[in-house]
Every structure is written in C-alpha cells, then in structure tokens.
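User: I'm curious what two different proteins look like when written out as structure tokens. Can you demonstrate?

Assistant: Sure. I'll show them one after the other, since each token string lines up with its own sequence. Here's the first protein:
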Amino acid sequence: MVKLTKIYTKTGDEGETGLGGGERVSKVNARVEAYGTVDEANCFIGVAAEACGASDADVSSMLRRIQNDLFDVGADLCTPRKPGEHVGDALRVTGAQTAWLEARIDEINAALSSLTSFVLPGGTMLAAHLHVARAVVRRAEREVVHLADEVGQSEVAEPLRYLNRLSDLLFVLARHTASKDGGPGDVLWIPGGDRSLSGDSE
C-alpha cells in the first residue's frame, strides 16, 4: 500500500532521485526519463478521459483502466531487475495487460473503414486529445528503447510491448471517436497539401 504523508522531501534538490530499489541516480538518467515520460503520457490520457462525453463512457472507462496500468509500467521501469528475481518480488507489467490492449484494438478496428492515407490529428476535440496522448506514448516508447540500449532489451521487454500496443490503441480510439455520433470522421493527409491555393504550384 502506498502512503504519502509528505509532499516535499528536499532529497531531490541536488538533481538526483531514488529508484524503486533505493539507488540514487540523476534526474536525467535514462530510466528516469523513461518512466517520467510514461507519467506525462498518463496525464494526457487523463485529459482525454475528461473530454469524454456521456456517449463516450466506454472510452472513458477504457482510458481509466489504462491510466492505472501505466502506473504499473512506471513502477516496472523505476525498479531495476535483480539477478534471480522471482515473480512477485517487484511490480511488473504482465503479458495479460498487453493482450488486453490487443483485444481492444482488434475489437475497435474491426468496425473502422480501411485507410487510404495517413490521418491528420483532429476530427473532434476528443480525437485530438487522443492523438496528443498517442504521440506522447510514442515518445515514451522511444525513451524505453533508449533505456534498453543501456540495460538490455530483456530488462524492459514487456513495458516496451505495452507502450507500443497502447499507441496503436489510442490511434484507433481517435478514429473511432472522430466518426461516431455523426462526427466528421478521419481527416486525411493530402500529399502536397493545398499548394495551388497558396500559389505554390511547383
């Protein structure tokens, strides 16, 4: 059980923070950058959840579950694996959590039309928030890849898989919410844009 009794401790005033195992590292350590960006992604997902209307209760519920799982991801990344670690020694992301994302992706994507171009972020306010969250999750994924370069792929394999699937889920959720209830649907990228309108025809 987590118990927070004091908000400031002054222990980070010199630019260091503590990992899950007690080790002190720089606040720009690759591990801290990774779980810090996961926390940032969680915040944006919270904004998206708040933007859900009454007709998006299913999306809101899904996002709240994901927010909880992202704390598990952060806890996993925050705690270096120890030699001989057993299941239950530390909180780790599980394959079941990643599989849940995959099931939601397949379920939602089955009802969407095939894409003929890339999607511009937007369509509706909720879809726009989901696209922002998706982009931040992608950045978190890149930070975890950077961490993997330092500590080894096996150290962060499941958090990396989870984040990769999560960005895909946020993408299909953005498409889903943009097209429901008479929404405009996908706003597609037009290669070359509207150059003719601006006089740039070359």
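Here's a second, unrelated protein for contrast:
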Amino acid sequence: MKPMGRDFYDRPADAVAKDLLGKYLVHDRDAKVRIGKIVETEAYLGSHDLASHSSKKKTRRTEVMFGPSGFAYVYLVYGMHHLLNVVTGPGENASAVLIRALEPVKNLEDRTRGPGLVCRAMNIDKSVNGLDLTGSRLYIAAGPETGDFNIAEKPRIGVGYAGSWAQEPLRFFISASPYVSKLK
C-alpha cells in the first residue's frame, strides 16, 4: 500500500473527512503492521470553528495544526485516551480531521468503535504527534475497494461547548458499516 500524497490532505477538512472514508490507516510499529479501514471521521474547520482546538490560538499542544497539511495531530484526552487527527489545508489553515472508527483489517484484536479505541488498537500514542503521514511508519492509503458506499452526515460528538458549531453536520461515516461508533 502506498501513502496518500500531501495534495490529498491540502484541502478543506470537510472534503478530506469524506474522502478518508474507505481508506486504510496503516501503522508499522514494533515489527507489527496494523491496518484498519476508516469508517467514521469528524472535520474541524480551523480557528473560526469553536469546536476545534485551533480556536483557542496556537499552543504547544496544537502547534502541529498550524503547520502544513498531512501530519498527525495526537493528543491525550481525559488523561487516558489518545486521539488521532489528520492535519488538513488548504495551506496552514489549522484544520484537522479526527479518525473516529475503523473496520479491523489486519492485526487489530481490540475494539475500534470510537477515537480512543482506534488509537489503543492501532498502538498510536503521543510519540507519533507531528509525524508526516506521507512517510512509511504511520500513513493512510487507498484500499482495493472502489469507495462505492453511502456517506451519512451528522453533528459531531462531545462538542456541546461549541455553541452553534456543535450542531454542524461535520461527522461523516459509512452508513452501512457496523463499526461506526454511534449512529445518532
């Protein structure tokens, strides 16, 4: 499998979020390659999006979001769950896409229905924060399927603090997938 090129990521987050569906997340770590098919994502549109971490300005934690597209943004939530985001563009737009759920493909024995479970199953932690996703250690690749599926759009989960942004339909998932974290 070949990693997606930088131009794939250097587009608006909502477009990338939809196009990530059906792609394969690959992590080669500790002599074990883990692969999962992406079935659910959430788009965070940039500093004007009040649900996005970038809306709170650039910090040590969020600085990777303010850089070029195609890099991993990984952070710890609730002191126990790592979450993987893909930095998107265009340019240095401080936008990203959260990977919410995977369909297990190879070497995934744990649950993958939820962003914290995705990282646990894929052995992703803060050590890959800022990693270039066009490399060979952690990347996203096109799968063998044609991508012929229906995409559902719903509001994001857990962003009630973001006012009207909480109701924006920026969560995308393959509607027929049994691996989606929440159908609401």
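A detail about the second structure: The chain has one domain: 6-174.
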